[in-house]
Amino acid sequence: MTAVQAIIGKGFLHNNDMMVVNSWGKTAKQTNVAGRSDADVSLEVQLNVSRRDTGAAIDLTFNPARDYEQKLKAYVAKGNTAAEYLRETQAFDMDVTVNLVAWCKMDSKANSVLAGKTYAGFVARKVPVTILYNGDPAIIDGPAPRATVKTRAEETAPPIK
Question: Which domain holds residue 18?
């Protein structure tokens, strides 16, 4: 092995390397495993999350807000109100794909087209992620009261120096 990396998103091998269509997070390529035939490696990777549903036709981000909006629309389509749904604290699971990638270098004397070359191999695993929405019991049905702004009756100029 020459290096390892964890990548969240959909990926595939291309020209002996890992290509990721939509990376939702990744570690740096770690080379501290160089020369080892196997390694027990710990990789921490942060999942990048979109917090708003933009309504875009194509969204390659990990976007739980989009899934939550779809659940809300389905709830309202059954004759319920959006306010009822938004008042409730909810948790739902979504799967993300984590790719564990390792790069290896074939011995230069090997009887292979890859002799002396570095190539990638990977395994993809679905990992459940729990999304928590904290409901707001203060949300009401119908129009909300509007805030009023009070202004001073007259403005005074700052003192002259």
Answer: 3-38+52-133
CA atoms within 13 A on the CB side of 103: 18
Helix, strand, or coil (residue 76): helix
Distance CA 133, CA 105 (A): 46
Q: Is there a contact between 93 and 131 (Cβ–Cβ < 8 Å)?
A: yes
For the beta sheet containing 90-105, the strands, ordered from the edge strand earlier in sequence to the opposite edge, are 17-26, 3-14, 90-105, 118-133
If one counts the domains in the chain, the total is 1
Q: For residue 18, which phi and psi values (nearest 5 degrees)?
A: -90, 130
Kindly state whether residue 80 falls inside one of the protein's structural domains.
yes
Q: Is the pTM of this model over 0.85?
A: no
The DSSP call for residue 72 is H
Confidence of residue 157 (pLDDT cuts 50, 70, 90): low
Q: Is residue 117 part of a domain?
A: yes
Residue 44 lies in a domain: no
With vertex at residue 64, the alpha carbon angle to CA 63 and CA 69, rounded to the nearest 5 degrees, is: 105
Residues 6+ apart with CB under 8 A from 38: 1
Residue 157 lies in a domain: no
